[in-house]
Amino acid sequence: MVRVLRDRRIVLGVTGSIAVYKALDFVRQLTQAGAQVDVVMTEEAQAFVTALTFQTLTRRPVHTTAFEAWDAEQAGHVTLGANADIMIIAPATAQSIARLAHGFADDAVSLTALACPAPLIVAPAMDHYMYWHPAMQANLEILKSRGVILVGPDHGPLASGMVGDGRMASIDEILAVTRKALGRTGPLAGRRVVVTAGPTREFIDPIRFLTNASSGRMGYALAEAARDAGADVLLITGPTALPDPKALDVVHVTTAQEMYGAVKHAVQAADVLIMAAAVSDYRPRHVAREKIKKETPIQVLELERTVDILREINQPGLLKIGFAAETEQLISYAQEKLHAKNLDMIVANDAREAMGSEFSSVVLITAEGIIDRIERQSKVALAEAIIDHVAAMLRTRVATDERTP
Asked: Does the 192-403 domain belong in CATH 3.40.50.10300?
């Protein structure tokens, strides 16, 4: 369960587009994450999906008309909008965007949006030429000038049969932008965080390489947790099978040397470096220019050390967090790395349990000793706990700096 969504009051406006079917999955994911979702539908949206469908998913009443009864506690859509933590309109048709841009309040969605002081996310969905019409572009500019967060649209097959711009953004992207917006005032707001993830590959010849079993899940989860805590995040990742996280910056690298170059550049403007990548310790001393054939006599593969990225990065003021994936003497080896690489904190785990798995347990260690033992749980939950400690360390550093004359 993603913490930034838990118990949040989310209003979802649904307007009359075929993309409304995607909103069903969006609602399902929000409610499973623990959010309270109130759905507001236009009359046109109900031609595609019934209100009962959304009511079944949310287990809450669905609002379909601008004329709702008021009582002692609820002033119709005025209360619905006023109490929301965020409002999302997905899909947002050309008509609904025009209403929003010009302040109309003649249907349930536009009325609720006008009465909502919380952040507003709009995911356009329409035909290519409608999207690029000057009137539509002008309306979108009006919304952006008011601080409305626009997501998409994507390029792809459209309901008309043509291929172009106007396809509603993916639910993964809308969800990520929602999480980022909800976490905008979190404990890492205003901070720049660099996270590394995944393995590196050190080539023997053009198609063979040395690598390890890292899946990248821990680093990706840390990047998303930092984003959800309000940080501006850059993820530097080696090759993985994971899709890029949304609503944050991603840089892809392959070798340890490439990762070092990307990290060295990125930390110049960063407050925190979290080095979760499983960087190869060795690389072949010589790389064959062509594929080594079976018939080639067996040779000894000479290896040399790769760059120790954390040891090399010594930027003043940068909070450095490392990982120690070990198979024995977990605590003592982690403490050695902590001091040798001048880290602020190290996250120690059993490599056999953690690598390639969606779950892990960790021990967090600073120069003062063990500060937390986190039992086996999902890497998403672990990432949130680690980011909590990172935020606390930054607060302590700020407080110490303020006391220093």
From this structure: yes
CB 237 within 8 A of CB 249: no
Beta-carbon contacts of residue 18 (< 8 Å; ≥ 6 apart):
48, 125, 159
Phi/psi at 377 (5° precision): -160, 180
Give, in order, the Cα–Cα distances in Å from 174 to each of 88, 151, 284, 336: 9, 7, 43, 43
Residues 6+ away with beta carbon under 8 Å from 299: none
Instruction: Give the end-to-end CA distance of the chain in Å, rounded to a whole number.
Output: 44
DSSP class of 83: T
Dihedral sign for Cα atoms in the order 322, 328, 331, 337: negative
- pTM for the model stands at 0.91
DSSP 185: T
How do residues 353-378 score in pLDDT, each as one tens digit? 777 778 888 999 998 888 899 999 99
180 φ/ψ angles, rounded to the nearest 5 degrees: -65, -40
Query: 236 by DSSP, 3-state: which?
Result: strand
- Start-end of CATH 3.40.50.1950 domains in the chain: 3-182
Alpha carbons 339 and 130: distance in angstroms, whole number: 60
Angle at 276 between CA 270 and CA 279, to 5 degrees: 105
Domain 3-182, CATH: 3.40.50.1950
DSSP type of residue 100: H
Angle at 305 between CA 301 and CA 308, to 5 degrees: 155
Name the residues annotated as catalytic.
Answer: 212
Q: Over the stretch 383-403, which tens digit does the pLDDT of each residue have?
A: 999 999 999 999 988 766 655
What are 71's two structure tokens? 């009582």
